[in-house]
Specification:
The protein is α+β, with helices and mostly antiparallel strands. The chain has seven helices and nine strands, in the order H-H-E-H-E-E-E-H-H-E-E-E-H-H-E-E. This is Mab-21-like nucleotidyltransferase domain-containing protein.
Length: 249
Amino acid sequence: MAHIRNTRLRNLYEEAEFDREHEEVQEIEETVRNLVQEIAESIAEKDPLFRTTVLQSGSFYEDLKVEGPNEFDFMFCLEELSKIGVCEVKEIPFRSVRDPGYVHVQVPHPFHEKRWKKYISKSKKLKPKALLEKFEILVREALTEKSNDFHPKLDQHSFTIELRKISVTLKLVWNGTKYRHYEISIDLVLCIKVGGWPKDSDLQTRFNRSHPGFEVMNKVTEMGYHLIASSIGESGAPRPCWRLSFSKA
């Protein structure tokens, strides 16, 4: 740090820089990851429809985080709705802005439609806002129950839960040695795994067999993508729908 002579700049740099291999950074990550998994398991016990597979995402897990271990992102992938053939992706009709990043979802099979009827509209669309609202309730119940058994360095009396436009966001306070009175934000998003690749995508056209990146893109498209439950639609319009996500591709 000696090469930065300006004290203010040096202090800013030290605040922004963090060592991912630092013992306490790893302790924070492990604590957050374990807590999120416990929340998922508790939710599944309370409501089997919300049995999920937890996926790590966001800048921390993509090794792009530069400001400290204070933000974590997880995707809660609904297992039943992610099974092949359970959901159908539908284009949004009469859209004012053509935006292939948002779609509707339907549950055509009578058996699954009956199980999810509380979250299906009269027009047969799966309602992301209703699912998010229920998800927030389940997260709140699970975290409140777990608070008495928090990691010793997590303040069991200082946590908040907020339903945002796309995520349920948890705010926790960590009291460690290097990181004291340190606020940690955890975004939990509800999603569905979809096989194949969106019809609106032109990847197959742009990456034909003669393209040097064909093999890589072929593997990516075979992995599928996710639909994120959102209470807003294209261009920020207040029209709940599902947002395409390729963060795990």
